[in-house]
Every structure is written in C-alpha cells, then in structure tokens.
Amino acid sequence: HPGLSRSGVQACACLPIRGAGAFVGVLTVSVWGAKRTLSPGQLRALLALCRMAGAAIENARLFDEVRVAEARFRSLYENSTIGLYRTTPDGRILLANPTLVRMIGYTSLEELTLRELENDGFESSTPRKHFIEAIEKDGAVKGWESSWVHRDGTTIFVRESAQAIRDDGGK
C-alpha cells in the first residue's frame, strides 16, 4: 500500500487470533525502516504466537466462567435453608454451611470442626458407625434418620442423604 510505504512501513502482517475456534482478535506486526519483509520463519513464529494468545484468551474466559459458577454455588451453599456438610469417614468435619453450624448450636465452622462426629456427634441410639456402614455398602443413603447431639447436650433429630466420594484408588 503506497500510504504505508510513505510512513516508513516496509512490511505488515495481520494475523487472526482464535480461541476455541472463534475469532477473538488480530495481531498486527509492522516492519519499519530498511527495506525488508517478514521471512517464512518469522511468519510461522507469529502464527504460533497467535495460537498461544488464543489459548491464553480462552483460558481466561474459562477461568472467569468457573469463577462465576463457583460464586453462584457458594451463594446457594451458604444461603441454603437446609444443613449441608462434608466429613471424612472417620468423622472429621471438612465443610459445613451456616445453617448446619447454627442447627447444632455452634457459632462458626472453625468451632464446629473441633468436634469429631465419630465420638461426640451422634446420639448413642443411632451411632455413626451404622450410617458409615450403610454408605460403604450402598455408596449412598437417602432419608437416613439419625439423632445428633446439639452443642448444649440436647438431642436433635435429622434426616440425612449422603454419598461416598472416593479418590482414584477407591478410598
């Protein structure tokens, strides 16, 4: 283009940037000064750069989608009107939503995690071992009726649904 030559541009390349197969941008490279062009090797390097930029843009988009989904889930979890929790098989509490924390008389998850369900969470008429045995046998339980011990020592009655979550080794 004559206008580019007068400005001192000797070579110019506009290369597409694609992310997940969709057009997301353009990489424009201009060579100024002495008369020269972009070599085939330089063009290949620029195309590789475009592929990396497209992948980075796509990763950023996916990361943002995950962040938004996590925020929606977190809101649902924290604002649920039912108690939700996750423990290890030996009764160590890993997670509990605010409803469950309040339901059994605690003021914080940190305070609740000091409690070991295996030893002091279930009322003696419904020991936790029966609950764990049912999950181990069937992989899940639905509507399991238990008696839990409230922080003040009173008994509360709950209905639980649970599923075993295992690692790649089946544990």
- Average per-residue pLDDT, rounded, comes to 87
- Supply the helix-strand structural class: alpha+beta
The fraction of residues assigned to DSSP E strands is 25-35%
Major beta sheet, specifics? 2 strands, antiparallel
Give a structural overview.
With 171 residues, the chain is of the alpha+beta class. 41% of the residues lie in helices and 28% in strands. It is built from 6 helices and 6 strands. The strands form 3 sheets. The protein has a two-stranded antiparallel ribbon with strand order 1-2. The chain has a two-stranded antiparallel ribbon with strand order 3-4. A two-stranded antiparallel sheet has the order 5-6. Strand 3 (85-87) and strand 4 (93-96) form a beta hairpin. The protein starts with a helix and ends in an 8-residue tail after the last strand. The mean pLDDT is 87.
Helix-strand layout with pairing:
Layout: H1 2-6, E1 9-19, E2 22-32, H2 40-79, E3 85-87, E4 93-96, H3 98-103, H4 109-112, H5 117-120, H6 128-138, E5 140-149, E6 155-163
Antiparallel strand pairs: 1-2, 3-4, 5-6
Q: What features would you highlight for this structure?
A:
171 residues; alpha+beta; two-stranded antiparallel ribbon; two-stranded antiparallel sheet; 6 helices; 6 strands
Quick overview of this protein structure:
With 171 residues, the protein is an alpha+beta fold.
